[in-house]
Amino acid sequence: MRVMEKASAKINLTLDVLHKRPDGYHEVEMIMTMVDLADRIEMKELDRDAIIISSQAGYIPLDEKNLAFQAARLIKDRYDVKQGVYIHLDKKIPVAAGLAGGSSDAAATLRGLNRLWRLGITDGELRTLGAELGSDVPFCVTGGTAIARGRGEKLEFIDSPPQCWVVLAKPPINVSTADVYGKLNASRIAKHPDTAAVAEAIRSKDYHSLCDGLGNVLEEVTLSLYPEVRQLKNCMERLGADGVLMSGSGPTVFALCSKEKKAQRIYNGLRGFCKEVYAVRMLTGEHAAP
Ligand SMILES: C[C@@](CO)(OP(=O)(O)O)[C@H](O)COP(=O)(O)OP(=O)(O)OC[C@H]1O[C@@H](n2ccc(N)nc2=O)[C@H](O)[C@@H]1O
Ligand SMILES: Nc1ncnc2c1ncn2[C@@H]1O[C@H](COP(=O)(O)OP(=O)(O)O)[C@@H](O)[C@H]1O
Question: What is the ipTM metric for this complex?
Fold first, then answer.
């Protein structure tokens, strides 16, 4: 038997940090949504009890450091599955980019193995399992659009944003999420985004208020460490984007555009000095699941 799963990338439309917690994590409030850029995960039964990972991408770990491996091991241990699995990751989402590529692969692996091994685990239980693998994994299990709280695992699902183009650009630097959170002074954040206002803009399909409300408190850390991320933001603004923001801990920056022509112009304008540029659609309505 063989199953395939799609693992979509997420962007953060808002990302606020309320305070640092005693366990070292940060209490967040953020709006996450999926975009049409995805890895494909193939899972096949193995005739021996092992987890084998392969990928066409040369730059991700293929051992127990891979989040898909960790997801497979977790579900095997928790449900006492004696069968092995071969997992192939067709990577399209840039790595260590702020787009939750690894988290989405882990979530897709949980969904896929639940089907492959007919375990009958509910979506809610898969999200709870996912939280053991990483803060973004529960959202990636279900996809769509959600306000995430806690360390990211407490989810309130909301409507999809209005349909638009999303141009993503990742500068050639690697940013560590732990490092960015570690350098944030949570008690001295200059400007907090208004997540409730952005959620209301989404509910009322008010695209312009959505663009005006974009905000991410981690930008102040990543932009000060890597001036090229600020340059990229400025460049997207000059090229006429309706709204521009860094996703997650970065370094990927995204531009929202309602018009395809404008998205194309931004895409072409960025290609000159950034290798990893994508123009994709926001995933909305029935397409919003990963
Ligand atoms: C910043 C965000 C926004 O969506 O995304 P990315 O930039 O990773 O895509 C997430 O909060 C990242 O989630 P994720 O990448 O799953 O983080 P985890 O593996 O759980 O944690 C990595 C490290 O980040 C820090 N961390 C993470 C989440 C959180 N709420 N507070 C934290 O302080 C901790 O130092 C932790 O050790
Ligand atoms: N399946 C995977 N795909 C991508 N990266 C992975 C995967 N498994 C583990 N990693 C590791 O996780 C780290 C974060 O990757 P990723 O999830 O792409 O970043 P982000 O959380 O910033 O979006 C990288 O250092 C990468 O080596």
Answer: 0.98
